[in-house]
Write a structure and sequence with these properties.
single chain; 238 residues; alpha/beta; Rossmann fold; 2 domains; 6 strands; elongated; binds magnesium ion
């Protein structure tokens, strides 16, 4: 069994992401100390973000607007203009944040390039995600990238049919059980779960690791061993 296509999630799979969001939220929470505790702000942000996803979709712009909405509510609709500006500025600072690749990502992609079709499949704001892919310095290693509004089995099926030899010879690698591993597996692909310490609670779900079609790795460098298991039917003995 030889795989043709390996797709990767981007945020918190190839590079750091969630930690920056949490940091910005904590910083803004400090600014709002006249109105609420940072924890209260954080809770209210989660709720706004959650409620707004059907309207704004995923990504930084929706996150910024949700922080603003939370701040307006917690201030009893008296949020001063300088705090409004500070929140908008915090969102812009995130857009300018340099990309920090996760360990072993670049080496692993270099090792796999040419042997498989490598894809990025990521949710978020189109402009921001494209910018991050460019700024990561990894773009040359990928055969294609897809910035999508939702990741469901149908999407994976379509991408793996169009870019390879179908889901059964494809693999999805990511840090989110709900958007990366489970829907890709439902489409018929192999799933590889790479957990990150800061998980978005929306993304949590049990992962059916079986060492056959579903794997969990602690770091990206272990991906080659997983491919060897799938393609030779046995674990690397070294
Ligand atoms: Mg992710």
């Amino acid at each position: 069994m030889k795989l043709t296509t390996i797709a990767f999630d981007a945020d918190d799979t190839l590079w750091e992401n969630e930690g920056f969001f949490r940091q910005i939220e904590a910083d803004v929470g400090e600014l709002l100390s006249d109105y609420c505790s940072p924890e209260e702000f954080s809770r209210r942000c989660r709720k706004s973000e959650h409620d707004n996803i059907p309207l704004y979709g995923y990504g930084l712009k929706g996150f910024t607007l949700s922080m603003l909405e939370a701040a307006v509510d917690l201030s009893g609709r008296t949020l001063p203009a300088d705090l409004t500006s500070a929140i908008l500025e915090a969102g812009k600072a995130m857009l300018r944040h340099p990309i920090q690749l996760l360990p072993e990502v670049e080496e692993t992609l270099i090792a796999l390039q040419g042997r498989y079709r490598l894809l990025i499949i990521t949710k978020g704001d189109l402009y921001h995600q494209e910018h991050k892919i460019e700024a990561s310095g990894l773009a040359w290693l990928f055969d294609g990238s897809h910035v999508v509004s939702e990741k469901d089995p149908d999407l994976y099926r379509r991408i793996f049919e169009a870019d390879g030899q179908g889901p059964r010879r494809s693999m999805m690698v990511g840090n989110s059980p709900k958007s990366d591993v489970l829907p890709a597996m439902e489409a018929g692909a192999f799933g590889v779960y790479v957990p990150q310490p800061l998980a978005w609670e929306r993304d949590a779900a049990p992962v059916p690791v079986d060492g056959k079609r579903c794997f969990q790795i602690g770091r990206m460098g272990e991906l080659e061993r997983v491919l060897e298991i799938i393609e030779t039917g046995k674990a690397h003995s070294a």
